[in-house]
Design a protein that fits this description.
With 515 residues, the protein is α/β, with parallel strands linked by helices. The protein has 19 helices and eleven strands. α6 runs antiparallel to α7 and α6 runs parallel beside α10.
Length: 515
């Protein structure tokens, strides 16, 4: 191969016409112990470009230097590899190391040898994962150009497939993280976080349209701006109508076509289910590739499935709540306690759970399930349940069975709220010191739902009128609860309760029993 073999410039006219923008170069590794080979190769390919990207040459004079080049560069596209260097098969051993030990299956390896007898083509192609085999004597400039172009095109296609695979893996991971969030707000916020991660952007906003808003003229439609990032961080304070949103062109197109819209530097992901229409708006300084758009479209389709799942989940929870309301009405009809008792206990439980640091979903579960704490009383005879005096020892033993009865009634339904109700019914009379009933559990062996409901129930019972007693003065109630810290109640719960007593008293006053 010599300098006179160089092609004319018009060989790459087609590639050069695609764009005038110069992108990052292709890394080409030359591994050969002949310095002249390095010089001539670089000269022959000096004007080469593919997809408007020039070449960057990395030189290695031995197989060992070739290994070091791979360890120092993660994006080598092509290797022009000599066979005979420090040993007769150094090049072949390097090729094997690249594929097997370095586990790089993407780089294109073109084997060049001046001594074909040292590495016969048939056995090399059979035994080593190389992509082309050339004798140096046959490798003219034109064939070198062709081999390089072919290798880079193959590498590009492999990398596109690899990025697609990685992108889909990211979408799957992102979808899983989002699907774990069942509340609507938590779900949509998690979705926005994952979109930002996928696209590596800073400026975004999340908008919720209630289902009927789409039917109205956009300028008259109210919206809920849930959150924003970057320059849209305060969006919830700035936008309450569609015509106040900063992406009117994309918005009108999305509402008209009922699908997501993408431009060079903006994207509006539009997801609509039966009762929700959600928009994720992103502005970016980096143009979106076709792969980016495809990944976002797949992710958006998964979000729609997620929204439908949330709707079904909400419907199921609503059904459970309705069952709970009906069951508590049965208890109220048999006892002298009013519905305000279970309403207050539910509110106390929700507040105490929040102060304790439980997740929002757990606080909500406790709020809706706690009215079932005394459901077992339906199995207690009226003569005991509504006795206008203190119970004797035998009667008290019968009354104590209501905890276990309630747990047995609700246990095993497989429904979130009823299962939580079973835990609460069966453990809200356990004591921190282990002296409670029905199982004599102690400390953290008592489920947190039961520990919270125990304090809420007793606080309300002491403050309320019963058939056998008048309400205690609030000072005596608080003194009793403080004295029972570490005995009846978990100390931390008592501490939180007393530190926030004003909030509990507000609930008590707002839900007074009717006279």
């Amino acid at each position: 191969m010599n300098d006179s073999d160089l092609f004319e410039d018009d060989f790459f006219a087609e590639e050069d016409q695609q764009s005038t923008e110069v992108l990052s170069p292709w890394n080409i590794l030359i591994v050969d112990d002949d310095e002249e080979i390095h010089r001539v190769t670089q000269m022959a390919l000096s004007s080469f470009s593919f997809e408007n990207r020039p070449l960057h040459f990395i030189s290695a004079m031995s197989a060992q230097q070739g290994k070091e080049a791979f360890l120092n560069n993660s994006d080598i596209a092509m290797v022009l590899l000599d066979v005979v260097m420090e040993t007769d098969h150094a090049g072949l051993e390097l090729a094997k190391w690249i594929r097997e030990e370095h586990t790089n299956l993407n780089v294109r390896i073109v084997l060049r040898t001046g001594q074909p007898g040292q590495a016969p083509e048939q056995s090399v192609i059979r035994d080593y994962d190389i992509n082309d085999y050339k004798a140096k004597t046959e490798l003219t400039t034109q064939k070198l150009y062709t081999a390089t172009l072919t290798a880079l095109r193959a590498y590009q296609h492999i990398m596109i497939l690899d990025r697609s695979k990685q992108g889909m893996e990211h979408v799957i991971q992102a979808t899983k993280k989002v699907m774990d969030k069942m509340g609507f707000i938590a779900f949509t916020k998690a979705a926005l976080e994952q979109i930002i991660t996928l696209m590596k952007v800073n400026d975004s906003m999340l908008v919720n349209l209630n289902s009927h808003a789409i039917e109205f003229v956009p300028q008259q439609s109210k919206i809920q701006t849930i959150c924003g990032t970057g320059i849209y961080e305060n969006v919830s304070e700035q936008c309450s109508h569609l015509d106040q949103l900063p992406f009117q062109t994309l918005l009108n197109q999305a509402l008209k076509e009922g699908k997501s819209v993408f431009t060079a530097d903006e994207l509006l992901i539009y997801c609509k289910s039966e009762s929700h229409a959600v928009m994720f708006y992103i502005s970016t300084e980096h143009p979106l590739s076709q792969l980016d758009k495809h990944l976002l479209e797949v992710f958006a389709e998964n979000l729609i499935v997620g929204l439908k799942n949330i709707e079904l989940h909400e419907l199921m929870k609503h059904s459970q709540r309705e069952v709970i309301y009906r069951l508590t009405e049965v208890v109220e009809s048999r006892s002298n306690e009013t519905g305000y008792h279970v309403k207050r206990v539910a509110k106390y439980c929700q507040l105490l759970a929040s102060l304790y640091g439980l997740k929002e979903e757990e606080c909500e579960t406790l709020y809706f399930a706690s009215p079932l704490h005394d459901i077992g009383k339906v199995g207690i005879p009226d003569r005991i349940l509504n006795k206008p005096a203190r119970l004797d020892a035998d009667e008290w033993k019968v009354m104590q069975t209501h905890a276990q009865l309630g747990e047995q009634m609700l246990n095993g339904s497989g429904l979130e709220l009823l299962d939580a109700g079973a835990i609460i019914a069966g453990t809200h009379h356990e004591r921190w010191d282990g002296m409670g009933y029905p199982k004599g559990l102690s400390g953290t062996d008592i489920p947190i739902y039961g520990r919270i409901c125990s304090l809420a129930d007793i606080f309300d019972a002491l403050c309320s009128t019963r058939a056998y007693k008048k309400p205690w003065p609030i000072e005596e109630v608080l003194s009793y609860i403080k004295a029972e810290s570490g005995k009846f109640f978990e100390p931390r719960l008592v501490e939180l309760f007393l530190a926030n007593i004003d909030q509990f008293l507000m609930i008590k006053d707002a839900l007074k029993d009717p006279h």
